[in-house]
Each structure stands twice: as C-alpha cells, then as structure tokens.
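Before relying on records like the one below, remember that each one covers exactly one chain. Contacts with other chains, cofactors or solvent are not represented anywhere in the record.
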Amino acid sequence: MILDRKTVTMGSLNPRGKQEVADGPVLVDAQCEPQGKPSAWQTMTDCLEKSYSLPRTWRVIRELGDRHAGCSDFDTARECYLLAHCLAPKEPEPLVRFGVLAIQNNELDSAQQAFDKARRLDSKYPEAYNGSAMVLQMRKDYPAAFEMYLKCLELSPDNLTALLGLFQTSCQMGTFSKIIHYLELYLLRHPEDTEVLACVATLYAREGQTSKAREVLNKVHELEPKAEESYLASESA
C-alpha cells in the first residue's frame, strides 16, 4: 500500500462494517473524516472524547492498534494507527507504529514514507531513525542503514534493536571499528547482557583479537553457559 494514494475510513473498527478506501493522500494532509454519514467515525471519537482529553484519545487508539497488531489483525491495527495520526498529526509515534506494521507486511515504500514523515515531525525521535534503518537494511543499502542506526543510538544509547541492527550492518559491510565502540559503551551500562557480549566476542574474533574474544566468552559462560555453547556452534558451522 502506498501511503500517498489511499485514505482510510473507520470501516474495520465497526465489526459489522467493511473496510473502505478512497483516492486521496493519507499521511500528508489526510482527509481524516469520511464523507457522508459519519456513523462509525463519529461514534468512536465522540465516545472517547467524552472520557478523555484529545491527547489521551489518540494514545488510547494507538494502544488499541497495538492490541490488534499483537493478535495479527493487521488491517484493523493499520486503521487505528492512521486514526491516531489524524487525531494527533504532529505526533511521530502513530506513524512509527504504522511503519513497523508495514515492514512486517513487507510494504517497504509505505514504511519508509511513514518513518520519513515521523523524522520531519520530530528530528529527535529515535524510533523514526531506527525504522528507516530497518527499511534501508532490508533494501541492502547498508551504509545508509548504518548511519541511521548511528543516529538512533546518538539519541537513545540503550536502544538494543538499533545496536544489534548496527552490528548486522557492520558484519554485512565488513567494518567493525565503530560498532565495537558502541557495543563497549553499551556494556558499560549493561555488563550482563549476554546477547551483546556474544556480538562483541564475534567482532573481537573477526578482528584477530582472540584473547579478548575468549575473555568475553568466559564472561558469557559465567552468566549463561548455554549462550557460549550456541556461539561456539554457530562459529564452527
């Protein structure tokens, strides 16, 4: 689905209704309220706004989208995220949630549009950079993905998803110096994270620093014996 070609109604939020799409932009100057009788739309928004302030209303709908996404009801989740965006058009979070859902459905164009707009709305929102990095990595644009992951980590140093994405792109490009630095910084704050310790051991081994790699693996073994066994099995495969 291309975001600038379709707009969404509240059809699928009404169990007896049907999903409808119409021509027109979605995430740029979206026509949020469907034309004609506003039945499902008006019922939903009126009910919520009687109980919550508008800032909380969009968060409630976003949480509803998360619940539907967790149940693999992706169509309804998508509409919830778009409605949350319509109610709070200056908030990046609904766009990022929409983008993550688009990635899961392999709709990379839609995902990239959502993340790009989220970054324009808030240039310091780390998950927007993390999402863009994931799309770029899936498209095998590893240098651009690497830079997006770095930007995310500058804003959110403990973002494990971005850190592991940086590790993956580093391995794919064969450049390890920067990622070792970021992993070591992360371990200063989280010294018992065995997943990151295993990544560091891998990079030390690839850089020829076998003594450091063994030292890290000994620590992994102390914390979680099976983690070292998994690492050794993957290295010998």
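Confidence is low (pLDDT under 50) at residues 1-41.
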